[in-house]
Amino acid sequence: MNQLPLNGLTILEFSQYLSGPSAGLRLADLGARVIKIERPDIGDACRRLSIKNLWVDGDSLLFHTINRNKESFTADLKSPEDREIVKKLIARADVMTHNFRPGVMDGFGLDYASVRALNPRIVYGAISGYGKEGPWKDRPGQDLLLQSMSGLAYMTGNEKDNPMPFGLSIADSICGAQLVQGILAALVRRHKTGEGALVEVSLMESLLDFQFEFLTTYHSSGQLPRRSKFNNGNPLLSAPYGIYATGDGHIAIAMVNIPQLARAIESESLAGYDQEQAFSHRDEIKNILSQHLVCQPTAYWLERLHAEDMWAMEVLDWKSLTAHEGYKVLEMEQAVSTGRGKSLLTTRCPIRINGERLFSGKPAPGLGQDNEKIVMELLK
Amino acid sequence: MNLLQDIIVVDFSQFLSGPSAGLRLADMGARVIKIEKPGTGDICRQLYVSDTRIEGESTIFHAINRNKQSYAADLKKGEDLEKVKKLIRQADVVLHNFRPGVMERIGLDYETVKALNPRIVYGEVSGYGSEGPWKDLPGQDLLVQALSGLTWLSNNRDERPTPMGVSVVDILAGTYLTQGILAALYRRGLDDQSVLVQVSMMEAILDFQFEVLTCFYNDGRQLPVRSQVSNGNAYIPAPYGIYKTREGYLSLAMGDIPKLAGLLQCPALAVFTDAAEWFDRRDEIKEILTKHLVGRTADEWLSVLQPADIWCAKVMDYSDLLQQVGYKVLNMELRVKTSNGLSLKTTRCPIRVDGEIAVSERGAPLLGEHNELIDGQFGLGIFGS
Description:
The complex is a heterodimer. By secondary structure, chain A is an alpha/beta fold. Chain A has 16 helices and 14 strands. In chain A, the strands form four sheets. Chain A has a six-stranded parallel sheet with strand order 5-2-1-6-7-8, with helices on both faces. Chain A has a three-stranded antiparallel sheet with strand order 9-10-11, with helices on one face. In chain A, strands 3-4 form a two-stranded antiparallel sheet. The longest helix of chain A has 24 residues, at 170-193. In chain A, 56% of the residues are buried. Chain B is of the alpha/beta class. Chain B is built from 16 helices and 14 strands. In chain B, the strands form four sheets. Chain B has a six-stranded parallel sheet with strand order 5-2-1-6-7-8, with helices on both faces. Chain B has a three-stranded antiparallel sheet with strand order 9-10-11, covered by helices on one side. A two-stranded antiparallel ribbon of chain B has the order 3-4.
């Protein structure tokens, strides 16, 4: 693609770990130049945070995953000299992001009011855990804790299970995604008015927004969401919504008419229920289904359900998924070249522009690798 | 919150993925016009949830579609289609989440729309993209979760694959579509060109797994192994997870095990001095924690752990959460009113701009509520009809 939507924009990323840097990654993939501003010697703490002890060129694979397609500039924000250089960068930037706890950027003299005085066109994106006020403001903005506090842990798993978190960092991911939306909308306005903006999101507010269907339902019914006793798929939804064991694997069944389902799978016990009972009797219905579906292999059921256009699919793991033609045609994987002729495989940006997938082979930066180039640009 | 003032969005989408994108655009100041089928409208109007309905419509329809307008049009009728085309000529964004081929049959595919309006940003959500063996299958949240491998990340090791209990695929796909649309609007401001933005639910949920999928791609394709006890994340060492206490549940994130042993007065944990064991022997550690933590209440444990800066929290449901000062100061609740006087409480946009929250009180539209207004404002009406 000749021109990506955000070509020409420069973004300074003071963020670490996942929430802020995932926003930077999306902006980079959409065409922006993203420069990480990192502490000398240490850098983004994510460089040292590995999963499964996987490392690439001295940094964690995790860091490489989140920070590909970016540059790195080291500056000690506690040093007045370094701060002057950073202020020069800010004066020329379009966007900056940070995810420090409230007050930290103020301490560096890089709060929004100070930055705006340097560059009134800047869009300033800030992520916090719980907002800037109240008793939680200084608490660690950590994903599992946010899931636990926000009510989200009561959505997954069955009724008798302990509260159960999502097995991925949903608070970080969704909050970073909200920040991207706010920043881009602010850039749209800036084009018209010339004015920058302060865009603030928190992990907690993002996670509450994520549950907006549940919270709205709770506000009007006063009933806490209840996970079904068996095969819970979503506490708001009636039977059969969930995943069931079959003779040789698992099958997911979404919204389906109960009498129609009873006919398609030839279940006499299920035939006794009508659609009006799909919510009120969902535990019984799900129990009947789980005993019935385990008697035949997945393919047997899918053939019958798909013949009636019913919403059901097999459950895959990553091995069966990545071997599937449906996955391959997406071309979701991309190689990123790292040092010494090596490369790693990761996913690409999920957004297509003008029918084209957005690939970028540019790796994550070494700490401070772009200092010299960036200082030279400032001198121009 | 007028970032998108004067932006007009013509939204053909239904259910959640597309409409959640429309909602966010509306929250940030765009005017979003839902184009709905006369008589039935967005199918979500009739999607009953938890048996909780508002004026015969589902609560979730109201949550997803507040702050929008509704224009009823039968796209199979030439006259209605012409009106919609006239509206599109004056719009900035079109969005839809029909299955591949539907907009082509209606005659509102990207090429046609671009010919009508060369500055249009055209956004579409599909289930699985427009090619391959899955392209005509229903793009439904649970089914996409099931195919994507996501269900092997939550719950404990010996449990069945477990879906995430919120429509995470729809919401992420809608969010990414919004990102693409906004980036395209920014670009259009510079070069006046139309842009096609496409997101599929499958690509969105693969992206959500980018950290762990990248691990899988590069570690010899080893599948995730959830911990046997209190699994919080298949890739993170003990104690990461949620534990039952004598009263309430306690959540523990990353933490130093010998330090925890001291604070919790749990000598059995003190032997795990090598940090590598916190992953390799996580089931043993979590088993010890499970037995130990039921001895006292969550509040008692928190009073020891929080002062020591251990990353921990009490697990709350909505009735606990909504009473907390920390929740109340966020001002996350929003009361909206529909034009027939119905009032309901929902959540607001989570993005603050220039220190302000978005507080539009406009509820979801009645089906076709704005036909007359829109006919007049955009010159669509034929006199006397």
